[in-house]
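Figure 6 in text form: structure in, sequence out.
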């Protein structure tokens, strides 16, 4: 099917608007000021394969990382084990596309006529997750278990039924259970809005037209990004720096990068940087990739909303 250009543009903007509406829901209903004042959260909608379709403007360090969480949901459960009304949470920086533990993702599968068609997701900074200090952030941590609750990719809702045991576990292990519970509900509400709006879009255009338009949007974005890269000179650049000491008595942390621009592709290679330390200064793959994507976006296409096509010309090592 070949969808006309006007319909493609209508759907492109609709997807961004859905993410923006989800963002507004979180702003208006969250109970923690770090969410509704600092805006330490991000919202987005994704294809059935977990590819980013539209993301609201938000925290730069969350740019393009929600897709990792959605893909982690697919890896854990598979499409065949997801149901309408499910809601999955994770903050795992190793297997769930997490940043740090306070940034908890809610992922909701979206079904149309009984078929998994898309996902809605929200990442938000919970004000407390337990751990050794209030607000669950410390400079002297030596292992992740000191930082608070770690959620693997797990269902908080199963076919619309809340996992009461998990919910009680969360409330019993955080210092501000009412605030955290309110923030959870804000994330859930935003995901449900995303479900409803995408359902309306699918009812209007149908799955075939919708998926064709989304694929075209991503290809158009990728083409624009590669065209921009071709305007830049080929070459290799290197940089190095040292992070402050990792905890009392620790040595500075060495970081180096080689940036290679070849035709319509850019590679960030951090080979040679120091390994992980026994401190709180380490960065999981999600946060690390997000930083690289943010820089890449500023170079190539800073004026437009991100989607999966925004980062296809980027390799991070």
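Output sequence:
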């Amino acid at each position: 099917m070949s969808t006309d250009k006007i319909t493609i543009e209508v759907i492109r903007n609709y997807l961004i608007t859905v993410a923006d509406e989800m963002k507004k829901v979180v702003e208006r209903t969250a109970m923690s000021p770090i969410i509704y004042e600092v805006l330490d959260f991000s919202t987005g909608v994704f294809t059935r394969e977990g590819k980013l379709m539209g993301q609201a403007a938000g925290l730069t360090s969350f740019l393009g990382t929600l897709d990792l969480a959605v893909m982690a949901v697919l890896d854990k459960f598979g499409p065949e084990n997801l149901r309408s009304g499910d809601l999955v949470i994770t903050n795992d920086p190793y297997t769930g596309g997490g940043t740090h533990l306070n940034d908890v993702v809610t992922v909701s599968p979206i079904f149309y006529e009984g078929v998994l068609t898309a996902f809605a997701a929200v990442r938000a900074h919970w004000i407390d997750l337990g751990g050794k200090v209030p607000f669950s952030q410390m400079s002297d941590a030596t292992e992740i278990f000191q930082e608070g609750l770690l959620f693997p990719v797990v269902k908080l809702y199963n076919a619309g039924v809340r996992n009461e045991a998990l919910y009680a576990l969360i409330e019993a292990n955080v210092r501000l259970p009412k605030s955290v519970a309110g923030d959870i509900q804000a994330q859930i509400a935003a995901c449900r809005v995303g479900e409803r709006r995408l359902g309306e879009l699918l009812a209007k255009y149908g799955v075939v037209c919708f998926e064709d338009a989304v694929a075209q949007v991503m290809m158009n974005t990728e083409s624009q990004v590669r065209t921009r890269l071709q305007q830049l000179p080929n070459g290799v650049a290197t940089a190095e720096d040292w992070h402050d000491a990792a905890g009392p008595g620790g040595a500075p942390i060495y970081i180096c990068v080689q940036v290679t621009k070849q035709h319509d592709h850019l590679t960030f290679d951090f080979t040679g940087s120091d390994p992980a330390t026994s401190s709180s200064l380490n960065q999981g793959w999600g946060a690390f990739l997000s930083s690289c994507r943010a820089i890449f976006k500023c170079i190539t296409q800073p004026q437009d909303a991100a989607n999966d096509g925004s980062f296809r010309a980027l390799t991070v090592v």
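Caption detail: The first strand starts at residue 41 and ends at 47.
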